[in-house]
Specification:
- Helix content is 19%, strand content 44%.
- The chain has five helices and 16 strands.
Length: 262
């Protein structure tokens, strides 16, 4: 459980048109889908090879009423859901949904952090979902765009025990400070302050590992998506593109730097 606690363990696409979203990601990322029939309602899972890595479902009516657009929701594992939700609220967060129980799977809640970025927390019942690691098609990075990243980091560090990594100066690419997030000694994501030009509220973005960002960005456009940022190089030699799918959900693709001699 120690390895599971504080780790991003599940990723869910909440969208206006699940039937249209599925072929977009299947064609773009090589994912497949599988129906899970274990709960009160059938649920469609994203599969990377034979490994379930997330799900896709219709954007709930209450989320629509609150003005939520199609989006990706990331789940963080916790050992005690009720204690985590209570702690988050004590730190200034709001509970948007739950806690709720999924028979034979576990319990979850959806939370908005003190600056409004939405995430979910999940306590497993039958063991944590396995990690997809760094393979192609895996979700490998999580990035928080927020109003005050030092305050945001304090919140998540207190809630999940995340560790502070390096801080990079992104001024050469038009940004500011970029704070690396670590869990268990491993880099798992980053956070930065959103600029006045960036639309929307604070939010989390998933990054999917791909072998050719430029080809993927072109393919996303062919499939009806839009490239919002990039493709562009990032410090460390990697390359990224930020994309919206045809329904408007925002995500990013990441290509690792080539190995030395590669």
């Amino acid at each position: 459980m120690d390895e599971f606690a504080g780790r991003f363990v599940w990723h869910e696409l909440l969208t206006s048109d699940p039937a249209a979203a599925q072929p977009f990601y299947e064609s773009l990322m090589g994912w497949s889908t599988s129906r899970w029939e274990g709960g009160d309602q059938p649920y469609t899972m994203w599969m990377l090879d034979a490994l379930p890595i997330g799900g896709v479902m219709a954007l709930p009516d209450d989320a629509r009423r609150m003005g939520a657009p199609p989006h990706w929701l990331s789940y963080v594992g916790v050992p005690d859901l009720d204690a985590t939700v209570e702690k988050a609220q004590g730190l200034g967060a709001r509970t948007l949904a739950g806690p709720m129980h999924i028979p034979s799977v576990g319990r979850f809640a959806v939370v908005a952090d003190p600056q409004g970025a939405v995430f979910a927390v999940f306590q497993p019942e039958a063991g944590p979902p396995p990690s997809a690691g760094q393979r192609q098609g895996a979700i490998v990075w999580h990035e928080l765009c927020t109003g005050d990243y030092p305050a945001a980091f304090d919140f998540y560090q207190t809630l999940f025990g995340w560790e502070q990594g390096d801080v990079f100066d992104m001024s050469e690419t038009g940004g500011g400070a970029y704070q690396i997030i670590k869990h268990g000694g491993q880099d798992i994501g980053g956070m930065f302050n959103k600029s006045a030009e960036m639309p929307g509220p604070p939010s989390w973005t998933i990054y999917i590992n791909v072998d050719n960002v430029d080809a993927l960005a072109a393919r996303a456009q062919e499939l009806g998506g839009a490239v919002v940022v990039g493709p562009l190089d990032i410090p460390g030699g990697g390359r990224i593109a930020q994309i919206t799918d045809p329904q408007g959900a925002f995500f990013a693709a990441h290509m690792a730097a080539p190995m030395d001699g590669g």
